[in-house]
UniProtKB/TrEMBL annotation:
<feature type="binding site">
    <location>
        <begin position="32"/>
        <end position="39"/>
    </location>
    <ligand>
        <name>ATP</name>
    </ligand>
</feature>
<comment type="similarity">
    <text>Belongs to the SMC family.</text>
</comment>
<comment type="function">
    <text>Required for chromosome condensation and partitioning.</text>
</comment>
<feature type="domain" description="AAA+ ATPase">
    <location>
        <begin position="23"/>
        <end position="159"/>
    </location>
</feature>
<comment type="subunit">
    <text>Homodimer.</text>
</comment>
<protein>
    <recommendedName>
        <fullName>Chromosome partition protein Smc</fullName>
    </recommendedName>
</protein>
């Protein structure tokens, strides 16, 4: 799967709707401190099913919603949409929306989809909320300091076989 575009609205500092095109190859995000670079990566992980507020530098899930500033009121919801091209070039659009106080839901090509199915969608590729293909601040030193078992997981993800573990867990649950 290839990422093509990312749309955000009301997500953290991205209060106004914004759309970014993602070109093939390596993407770097640059800008002054506090401009929202890390927020952008968190939006990407969030739409792919990130379930841990802590790994989003948040106390609770609602903290991803624009909290307001001196000049602007808070928003009641946040939405992130990831546009992708599938293996056969077909368009896939995954979006996640959270309303303050009532949790989040997902849509894949406009249809309601369960969180675990969204995570499965990304489980086989080198994508996904915990993908080593997304290198955030502090991540390099975390990889160097990782215990052998954690580092193995990272390598398995990079090799594209970590999805098999997710599938096996799913199969065991069902
Ligand atoms: P640095 O270069 O220092 O790493 P950065 O470009 O990664 O900076 P971010 O951490 O993405 O910057 O953005 C930080 C900004 O996002 C802060 O100004 C913070 O107030 C704002 N922010 C985070 N969450 C919210 C929220 N829920 N509502 C409004 N603003 C938010
Ligand atoms: Mg940052």
């Amino acid at each position: 799967m290839e990422f093509r575009k990312l749309r955000l609205a009301g997500f953290k500092s991205f209060v106004e709707p914004a759309e970014l095109r993602i070109e093939p190859g390596l993407t770097g995000v640059v800008g002054p401190n506090g401009c929202g670079k890390s927020n952008l990566l968190e939006a990407l992980r969030w739409v792919m099913g990130e379930g841990s507020p802590k790994s989003m530098r948040s106390g609770g899930m609602d903290d991803v919603i624009f909290a307001g500033t001196g000049k602007r009121p808070a928003r009641g919801f946040a939405q992130v949409t990831l546009g992708m091209a599938g293996a056969a070039g077909e368009e896939i659009e995954v979006s996640r929306r959270i309303e303050r106080g009532s949790g989040s839901d997902y849509r894949v090509n406009g249809r309601d989809t369960r969180a675990q199915d969204v995570r499965l969608l990304f489980a086989d590729s080198a994508t996904g909320a915990h993908s080593p293909a997304i290198v955030g601040q502090g991540r390099i030193s975390a990889i160097i300091a990782a215990k052998p078992a954690e580092r193995r997981m990272l390598l398995e993800e990079a090799a594209g076989i970590a999805g098999l573990h997710v599938r096996r867990r799913e199969a065991e649950i069902r």
